[in-house]
Amino acid sequence: MALTKRQKQVLDFIANFVDEHQYCPSYEEIARGLDLASLATVHKHISVLEAKNYLKRGFNQSRSIELSARYLQEQRRSKPPMREIPLLGRIAAGSPVESVEQREVLNFADFAGSGDTFALEVRGNSMIDDHICDGDMILLERVTEVRDGDIVVALIAGCETTLKRFYREPGDTIRLQPANSALKPILVPVRDIQIQGRLLAVLRKYK
């Protein structure tokens, strides 16, 4: 079923909010973001989008809206394929080496992993010793299970996200370890943490 202009605005707002914050917006945030008159209007749009299979929602839960598999599939189909660029060889960052041209291509799909992939812009320098700097773009794979030492995006207590190395500690505790000697690790009860993604690649643009 086709979407009305307003329904698409609601759906796009939710998708953009999730991309930016890595959790879904509340009805109040949707109303404010789209200048809707009441929460009843938001509820009506959400109900219609759920009936059209673009959203899923839980009941009696805070921030319970989820984008459906149908929406994600349509978004993938609408996006152009990842671009290939020539890979001409290797360049020395130490002692000079002989330049030998190669006939290969670099396909950014190689960085996308096997699951859902998304990008975030880094703010701050808590991971600078891992060469992840303020302003870098990072590519992540949506996962729920990770290994100790993985660099992850973690949602803490349902409201704050951070990029850190993940470690399990005794007593049902998770240690989120910064890569910056000036900062202390964050210790979080396992029940209060949700893994949003695992780092795949770091992109840095020089102007």
Summarize the structure.
With 207 residues, the chain is α+β, with helices and mostly antiparallel strands.
Verbal overview:
- Helix 1 (5-21) packs across helix 3 (39-51) and helix 2 crosses helix 3.
- This protein has four helices and eleven strands; from the N terminus they run αααββαβββββββββ.
- 23% of the residues lie in helices and 29% in strands.
- The strands form three sheets. A seven-stranded antiparallel sheet has the order 5-6-11-7-8-9-10. Strands 1-2 form a two-stranded antiparallel sheet.
- The mean pLDDT is 80.
- The protein has two domains: 5-77, Winged helix-like DNA-binding domain superfamily/Winged helix DNA-binding domain (Arc Repressor Mutant, subunit A), CATH 1.10.10; 112-203, Umud Fragment, subunit A, CATH 2.10.109.
- With 207 residues, the chain is α+β, with helices and mostly antiparallel strands.
- A hairpin with a 7-residue loop joins strand 1 and strand 2.
- The radius of gyration is 21 Å and the shape is globular.
- The longest helix has 17 residues, at 5-21.
* Annotation, overall tally of beta strands: 11
Give the percentage of residues in beta strands: 25-35%
Q: Tally the helices: what do you get?
A: 4
Average pLDDT level:
80
Helix proportion of residues, in percent?
A: 10-25%
Domain tally: 2
- What is the terminal separation in angstroms? 44 Å
Tell me the CATH topology of the largest domain. Answer: Umud Fragment, subunit A
Task: Give helix and strand order, one letter per element, not per position.
Answer: HHHEEHEEEEEEEEE
What top-tier CATH class of the largest domain fits best? Mainly Beta
CATH superfamily of the largest domain: Umud Fragment, subunit A
